[in-house]
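Convert to structure. Protein one:
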Amino acid sequence: MAKMRKKSDLPSKTCATCGRPFVWRKAWEKVWDEVKYCSDRCRMDRAKRKDG
């Protein structure tokens, strides 16, 4: 069985929309390099931020 990782050991990124830090999630395991937004709300608001 694999060792559990501490939350503080997980990789993190900064959201492109709100600027808040967010950490790796199991759901993003295969696409982590492509993840830019911390939530669906930030992903949907990205167009609003650009037009501004």
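Protein two, convert as well:
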Amino acid sequence: MARRSLSPEEQALWAALTRSVKPIRAAPRLPVPAAAPMKQPVEPRRLTPSPDLPFVPQAARSPATILDSGWERRIRSGNLVPDMTIDLHGHTLASAHARLGQALALGLAQGARILLVITGKPPKTRASGGTPRRGAIRGEIGHWLETGAHADRIASVRAAHPRHGGDGALYVILRRSR
């Protein structure tokens, strides 16, 4: 497409416009303040525990394992509808631990009773004769739930029904808030 030339009227209008334009003046540059002198690093102090206060580890609170027969029947038949689902599959241990804590806090705040936690099924390997190994997240999740901030609010932890992920998922059943 060829560019057209300006008509005499357009040329006069363009010339009047360019005469009225003023160039932008650059703002004067402010001087950069001098850097503050570096302070001497503080010597690290060694803290030694007081001998009169022995270390007492906090006992791990484990979620209850007993549910009534109605819950057991619903779990076996798969007639549970999770109130909330969290997928930890593919996460690192650190991010999975953080997400689990956030999901438990959110579930408790929303009044959820059943949390479906997907950990992912570990692959079957030929080296182990085709027997499944336990995944890293699945291996740690019990400890996280026992020692977490919400351990006293967990009624039970059970393997999920195949419809909800089977060996690769867990039901975390939360206590009712009273």
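The radius of gyration is 33 Å. The longest strand covers residues 154-159.
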